[in-house]
Design brief:
The protein is of the alpha/beta class. The chain has helices spanning about 10-25, 30, 50-60, 75-90, 110-120, 120-125, 145-155, 175-180, 205-210, 230-235, 275-295, 295-315, 350-360, 390-405; strands spanning about 40, 100-105, 130-135, 160-165, 185-190, 215-220, 240-245, 255-260, 320, 340-345, 360-365, 365, 380-385. Strands 2-8-7-6-5-3-4 form a seven-stranded mixed β-sheet, with helices on both faces. The chain has a four-stranded antiparallel β-sheet with strand order 9-10-13-12, with helices on one face. Helix 10 links the parallel strand 6 (about 215-220) and strand 7. Helix 3 runs antiparallel to helix 11 (about 275-295), helix 5 (about 110-120) runs parallel beside helix 7 and helix 8 (about 175-180) runs parallel beside helix 9 (about 205-210). It is globular and about 60 Å long. The structure holds pyridoxal-5'-phosphate (PLP). Pyridoxal-5'-phosphate binds near residues 108 and 254.
Length: about 400
Amino acid sequence: MTAPRTDIQGPALIEELGEWQRTLRAQFPIVTAHPELAYLDSAATAQKPQAVLDAVHTYLTTTNANAGRGTYPWANRTTTLIEQARDRVKGFLDDPAPERSAVHFTSGTTEGLRTIARDWLPDLLADGDEIVVPVADHEANIAPWLEAQRQLARQGVHIRVRPMPYQRSSGDYDHIALAELAGGRTRFVAATHVHHVYGGDMNIHRIRRVVGPDAVICLDAAQSIGHLPVSVADLDVDFVVFSGHKAMALPGTGAVWARQTRGPEFTPGGWSGTPNTVGVASLATALDWLDTVGADRIERWTVALAARLTDGLRHLDAYEILGCRASLAADSSVQRRQGIVTFRHHAIDSSDLGFILFSHGFMIRSDQHCQGRAGERTGSVRVSLHVYNTVEEIDRLLGVLATLG
Ligand SMILES: Cc1ncc(COP(=O)(O)O)c(C=O)c1O
């Protein structure tokens, strides 16, 4: 069970981590170059620290070559770099058995999930099997599974898609309802670690307990990698899919981690040509950087900022906060809100609110956030935080929001 939180709120934590955070913020050139702006859209993509920018420059000016082809030093170094980056991903995910897992680099979470659905899922499933699809999560974690169902049906293999049940009040999965619908034919469960709209940690431990030891769990970790510790040893999942660009690497990067022991081996089919070598170099450096900084401290910082924002919003009658209202309470053991806070104004349309907030220097995401068809139909604005965000930005945002009440 997720441990109750007693450490996430309050000025003491902000005081404790303040100096640490100032040092880190100074490492993001795009952030420090624009003190008049506040980037509050890290769930879409994260800004890059100087270490990642340096790694890109160094790779392109000392090593740039194709991988797995030439025999000259730059080509060999690039091949080694990609192999080492695979190990880096395994280490970052706290993989207890790296010799029994595989890492495949992709352009992001969407491509990673599609690759699993296209190249791996059909070998797992037989006629009459069932899969669970999180229909109110990001569209990237829905469409590939429905497409796999259609493809299999064309081959005469009919699988049943069971929509993941949700608790509407919190945006969390409904584990009790899931226990009722999951049975012996449930072979595969697609889940999300941190919800990209509601901001909640979706309690993956409980999903494993509910679906049992044999079902394959595929985790969309787009919003958790780089934001909180993600340990495959602890979570007991079979796939972890994430976007490197949301974890401070270059755009067009991402990875699939696959445990090779439950179900068929994951071997992405076909030759996908030249890999994104510089992207992989940036990803390895970003993961190094995040490990050095400490995902646990990043989590504490962003959760504290989210708590401050949520507390402030609760005092403003014009706003409705989406997702779990109680999740920031210190005694909440059900669902923890991470560094994402989504809300709407009772009278101002969310796109208009986005424009108004940008006129005050805030970059936030508005509208429907690529949520699946079972998700919110009314737009909202989303504030998503990372380690470079500050208390001052949150307080300034709350000040502007208060004037719109
Ligand atoms: C939970 C979740 N899954 C998948 C994606 C898709 O990621 P990408 O665009 O990097 O493929 C996102 C992007 O916002 C996301 O938040």
